[in-house]
Amino acid sequence: MPLTTDEAGRPIAARARARDPNPSPQHTHTLSPITPLPILSLSLSLSLSSPSGPTNPSAAAMASDPAPDDAARAAAANGHGNGNGPSPAKRPRAVISAAEIRAEFAHHDAAVARVNNGSFGCCPASVLAAQARWQRLFLAQPDAFYFHGLQQGLLRSRAAVAGLVGAGDVSEVSLVDNATTAAAIVLQHAAWSFAEGHFARGDAVLMLHYAYGAVKKSIHAYVARAGANVVEVPLPFPVASADAIIAEFRAALAIAKEGGRRVRLAVIDHITSMPSVIIPVKELVAICREEGVDKVFVDAAHSIGQVPVDVRDIGADFYTSNLHKWFFCPPAVAFLHTHKDDPIASQLHHPVVSQEYGNGLPMESGWIGTRDYSAQLVVSEAIDFVNRFEGGIEAIRSRNHEKVIEMGRMLAEAWGTFLGSPPELCGSMVMVGMPGCLGVESDDDAMRVRTMLRKDFQVEVPIYYNSRRVEGQEMAKDKSGDPVTGYVRISHQVYNVREDYERLRDAINKLVSEGFTSSKLRPSEKREA
Ligand SMILES: Cc1ncc(COP(=O)(O)O)c(C=O)c1O
């Protein structure tokens, strides 16, 4: 089989675009495309046609590392840095229609109202098709693929990411599986710094109280075990303003520094997961710099596709975002950004050690044994997809923001509650208080109600249990005067329709009208019933 690619380096077999075989009239899409759009084409070429070539993976990999000029050209061709939108058109292509959007997500379970893009993201059929072509290319001639195609394909994706996020150079971008892996890379380095005596036992590591569970556990597993004193920043929720977050951060940092303690690392979320709030990350990074924090790692698992990302402007030492959550890539692919002039970049290692150990994180991450790299190879196709919407990713995210706020307000109105944060602290996800009479009193209650909504109402939505009172304030109450302890986190993505949120609204209203309380789902109460 001839292994050929198009001018953008994509395998060319079967590139026909998915058409809607059966447009479903009952869905009203909330994102309406208007005018024809161009698509991006990168100039990096990928030749997979020769079965011969370097037999040493390192040689193959190193040969494909770009000159800085190439990287800059690729980045310039691909995006303009801070808005995460691809640059002007090269090839005209019709703007995506509502029917085509439905076709792109026809593999979603039509029975389910999925208002939870945040957890696992989504991937359109055209990107999945491109991924399948890469998988077949690999299986058709694995040796040619590994020795001649893989690194160039990964380089193309890294260059695309560099352009999207305003990286100075493609060498600053590594592709990894997910944000959890990126966190492991940064935290393992910190653990080694304790183990090798560069950090003293008791030096502090700062993290938000609402850091993602897996990242919190990683902080404990790697750095607390190695000797760090872990300090949490207790954030208010519901939250009124970015200033409230900044004030808590300053106070926690002062505690971390007590007695002259060194703060070696601050781990700051860009958008917290549960409850979901946009954190004023640029301001917090600046405070860390003023206060002498050694390094700042921004866990931005949710950022790209939800908020503008300009890694230079944010100014952290390490910045990671998933591409499979809000940027339409298949699971799983994320990037980790470091600065090329920072000596620490050469000290970072992928947690899976392979032949590329010592050749720099981008190279280490690009060859971690035999595995499927296809998710990492279709970043350009995801960019093609977003370019089919007028205004590209900027328009998608601002439309998602408007819609999620509109739907959040509709739910809050119906339930007599409120949003967990002001709109400016929301991207494409918002927290909405549930009626207090549901009696959510623990994380387990929240999980059981979520499971019930999935099984009995075909609604997929995460639920947050708010155990904490805002400092000096009563727990926020609903219009009946009951304390609001449970919140849904709703997402909006291009495939969502108003009916998805109405199903959620009606499910909760039905539970309330039937006198349901979460205690009915508790195992002990169920046994007694
Ligand atoms: C803030 C945050 N960090 C890290 C992660 C982990 O992402 P992944 O499971 O893709 O590694 C998530 C996932 O939702 C998250 O919300």
TrEMBL record:
Pfam families: Aminotran_5
Chain segments annotated as transmembrane: none
Highest taxon of source: Eukaryota
Domain Aminotransferase class V: 155-417
Keyword line: Pyridoxal phosphate
Gene3D superfamilies: Type I PLP-dependent aspartate aminotransferase-like (Major domain) (3.40.640.10)
Record carries keyword Transferase: no
Region: Disordered, residue numbers: 1-34, 46-92
Chain intervals with Low complexity compositional bias: 46-66
InterPro entries in alphabetical order: Aminotrans_V_dom (IPR000192), PyrdxlP-dep_Trfase (IPR015424), PyrdxlP-dep_Trfase_major (IPR015421)
Family matches, as PANTHER family: HERCYNYLCYSTEINE SULFOXIDE LYASE (PTHR43092:SF2), L-CYSTEINE DESULFHYDRASE (PTHR43092)
Protein name, entry field: Aminotransferase class V domain-containing protein
Organism: Panicum hallii var. hallii
